[in-house]
Structure formats: C-alpha cells, structure tokens
Write a structure and sequence with these properties.
Largest sheet: 7 strands, mixed
Structural class: alpha+beta
Radius of gyration: 26 Å
Distance between the termini: 67 Å
Low-confidence stretches: 79-106
Number of helices: 6
C-alpha cells in the first residue's frame, strides 16, 4: 500500500476543497491521469495521479476541506519509478501538518452567572456575541433567550466554501497583518471623450502614479521589516462574482498599449466567468484596483492584501457642483480612495501617489 497526500499547491496554501473525483475505488490509474479536482485560493486545480496503480481508498468526499499534507488516495500497488508529475506525492517526513483545531471561544471575560452559562450551553449560544443588558454589563437569562431566538430565526449556519472561504481567510490575514490608512480625492473627468473606458483610464493613471511615486508599487517584508520596490506594475483587478471575489493579475501594465490591455481584461473576465483562472494568474500583484463604483458607493476604506502595500478604489462617477474659475459649475467627477499600509508607506507618499492618479485622470484624453 502507498498513500498520496494533498500536495502543496503553491505559496503557503493550507487547505483545499474537494470538487470532484475523476476516479473511484477499484479503478486502475496511470501516472499523470487526472485524479481529483480541488478548489483552493479561488481556482479549481486538477491534480494528476503521482503513480500507476489501483485505487484502494479515497479519503475525502466532494465538499470536504482537506489540509495540505493530509491523505487523499491509497494505492494498492507499490510506487513505480514513474513519479515525475508536477505535483507528486509528498514524502511522509515532509508532509505538512493540518491546521490545528481552534480552541473553544474563551468566555471567561464575559459577565454571566453559572446558571446563565449553563443555559447558553444548552441552547448553543456563544456568550461572547450576546449583548448584555444586566447591571455592570452582565448577561442575563433574557439576553441568552433573545440571542437563541435570533439564531433560530436565522436558520442553520451555512459554512463558507470555495471562493468565499478563501476570501474570508485572506481578509482575516489582512486584518491581522496590515496597519491601514485611507486618503480620498475626487477627479474631474467631465472632459473625457464620450464612451471612454473608466477601467482603462484608471489602469493608465495607476501606471503613471507608480512611476511618479514608486513607494506604493511595493511589497512589505514584515518578517524583516523591509520592503521590495518593483520595477514593473503587476495590477490586481478585483472582480466580483456570485461565488466571491477574484483578483486576477494584469501584468506589466506600464509597457502595454490600450488595445493589448483591453484584450487582457477581456481574457481575465472570460476566465473568471468560466472559473478557469490559472493559479499563477492570481498571484504576484504589486498593487490592486477595485472599481467598486460600478455597483455603487463613493469612497471606501479598502483592504490591503499583504505583501502588497496599497489598493486604489474608484467609486461611482456622478455630476457635482464644483468651483471652476471661481464660479460654481456642474461637472462629472470620479471619487477615488487609496488605502495603504502605513508601516512601509508614509502619508506624503500616499498623497503624492493619489495626486498623480488624479492628474492623469483629469487629462481630456
């Protein structure tokens, strides 16, 4: 018998969700034959068989979350010499341990009588999220019963899967690691030619701003308290879907013409819609753009994903009364938000970057 474990699919991913098996128990497979499809970090990845042999056991079902290094398949035959797949079996000594189970939520700091705690345990209520109404912020029986009724009305918990799960984990990581600050501005885009593509104009403006203030086209090296400035601008484009948020990368935007960028955006959108974005196309962003204005909103405190140090967002363009040549006039404006990691980036650098974006956007063409 030999066991194939879930390999490391890239850059520290700790788990994957089983999407579908392409084999069953008793099947004979050959090396590099598609074995299983898994979803991790917003992409569906097909894992090939690391060897030839007969399947003796599958360790997970579709929908299960499997930790990197956990067993996937047991083969009846011993491994052959052919193990040259891209994602081969991880030797036992190198297998990564699965995530440690989280301890029960600590509630010792919550004020509640023993009887109230017992009631919360019986009703399945987490005291740490209950609003207290008793003296001195003490949780009462009525508070627990009210929380239990709210939980019952809401229905059973729905586990996050796939893209939403990956997004939740990324947001938690960003919240723990980044020291965010946000500056906002408004660009006057009234003189743009009819039919101008806002996304393409934003891409061009970001490329210009990265040249003017390169401190924001960088990665922060938290462990070493350093930074890495990038010569090329690899722009992450946030794309909203029903399944969650995808951020594919548009490479080297400063050296590409408008037609090439337009084709690149088209391919990215098609890949996201088809859920066929290669993992490598979801990595390596040096700065990110979120054009959330297509859905609504003006300004936002966006989330910076480490090791990046900045994300710029565009709100919904609108007509507004502005002063022009000392007189009020109605102009079309585009609200902008820049959130940056205040550890490696100074406020002045962020402000100059945003001013450079505005200056390019306010050009007529």
């Amino acid at each position: 018998m030999s066991t194939f474990h879930l390999p490391d699919l890239g850059e520290g991913l700790q788990e994957a969700e089983i999407v579908s098996w392409h084999v069953g128990v008793g099947d004979h497979v050959v090396a590099d034959q598609p074995l299983v499809s898994v979803e991790t970090e917003k992409a569906v990845v097909e894992i090939p068989a690391p060897q030839s042999g007969r399947i003796a056991k599958l360790f997970a079902e579709p929908g299960d979350i499997v930790a990197t290094g956990a067993p996937l398949v047991e083969f009846e035959a011993a491994p052959t010499a052919d193990q040259g797949t891209v994602v081969g079996a991880i030797p036992e000594a190198e297998s990564k341990p699965g995530p440690r189970p989280k301890a029960a939520r600590e509630t010792r700091g919550v004020k509640a009588a023993p009887a109230v705690r017992a009631l919360a345990g019986k009703l399945g209520v987490d005291l740490s999220v209950v609003a207290a109404s008793g003296p001195g912020n003490t949780i009462t029986t009525a508070d627990v019963e009210r929380a239990a009724a709210t939980i019952e009305d809401a229905g059973p918990p729905e586990p996050l899967r796939g893209v939403r799960r990956a997004m939740a984990q990324n947001m938690e990581r960003a919240h723990a690691e980044v020291v965010p600050a946000t500056v906002t501005e408004v660009a006057d885009i009234h003189d743009w030619p009819p039919g101008s593509d806002i996304t393409l104009r934003l891409i061009r403006a970001i490329a210009m701003a990265c040249k003017a203030e390169p401190a924001l086209n960088a990665w922060y090296l938290g462990r070493d308290a350093g930074r890495r400035l990038h010569d090329k601008v690899h722009l992450g484009i946030a794309m909203d879907t029903e399944d969650g948020l995808f951020v594919p990368v548009l490479r080297d935007i400063a050296s590409r013409g408008e037609a090439d960028l337009r084709r690149g955006l088209g391919r990215m959108k098609a890949d996201v819609q088809a859920r066929s974005v290669p993992l490598e196309e979801l990595r390596g962003q040096t700065i990110t753009l979120s054009n959330f204005g297509m859905f609504g909103g003006r300004h936002a405190a966006l989330v910076v994903m480490p090791p990046q140090v900045a994300i710029i967002g565009a709100g919904r363009s609108r007509e507004a009364v502005v002063a022009r040549n000392g007189k009020p006039t109605v102009r079309r404006v585009l609200p902008l938000s820049l959130t940056f990691d205040h550890r490696p980036v100074m406020g002045g650098e962020a402000s100059r970057f945003l001013a450079a974006v505005v200056a390019d956007l306010e050009k007529a063409s």
